[in-house]
Amino acid sequence: MNFDLKEFISSAMILFAIIDVIGNIPLIVLLREKYKVIESEKASFVSLVIMIVFLFVGEVLLNLLGVDINSFAVAGSIIILFLAAEMILGVKLYKDSNPKTASIVPIAFPLIAGPGTLTTLISIKSEYNDVNIILAIILNMILVYIVLKSSEKIQKILGSQGINILRKVFGIILLAIGIKLFTTNIKLIFA
Q1: What is the pLDDT confidence band of residue 104, given thresholds at 50, 70 and 90?
Q2: pTM of the predicted model, to two decimals?
């Protein structure tokens, strides 16, 4: 077991920023109003399973497609840069169709374990040990569960301005992470 506190904290922060559960509170509250019930346990567990499975199977799938991990990390870093731009600028680059249920779609996928999160998992896998990433996923799913359970209370406490500020701060952190992933992996591709 290669636990490294720095890798764990970095992985957890990256995933927290990309999942952006705090920034998605307004959407979660809207879905709760529309569907009346969001099964927090189910959404968190399904997201956890999707992420852990993709952490291990994602690379195998890439190998079958003939894509190396560094190229995927560069592609992932570009997606991260776009997500950061969405968070910082308040624009929506990705539009979703109307969901039929709220717990699995759109909360578990694509809100929590969506394309950005899955790409990020493969990207950080090239830099961090699997144990640290799995622990970071588990920590984030606990946080997601807590936020889903108490989304209405959190919204009342933070208010729309507080949520906007958090979204911008995590957007800047995500932008820096995307740039780091891009520069690190692009060097490895051309080395």
Answers
A1: confident
A2: 0.75
Residue 128 pLDDT grade (very low, low, confident, very high; cuts 50, 70, 90): very high
Q: Which residues of 67-86 are buried (b: 16+ CB within 10 A; e: fewer)?
A: eebbebbbbbbebbbebbbb
CA-derived radius of gyration, the chain: 16
* Contact status, residue 141 vs residue 48, Cβ threshold 8 Å: yes
Domain ranges of the chain: 37-90+97-185
CA dihedral 162, 181, 57, 111 (to 10 degrees): 20
pLDDT of residue 100: 52
Encode 147-169: b = buried (16+ Cβ within 10 Å), e = exposed. Answer: bbeebeebbeeeeeeebeebbee
- Cα 110 to Cα 177: distance, rounded to the nearest angstrom: 21
- Dist CA 187 CA 191 (whole Å): 6
Q: Indicate the DSSP class of residue 66.
A: T
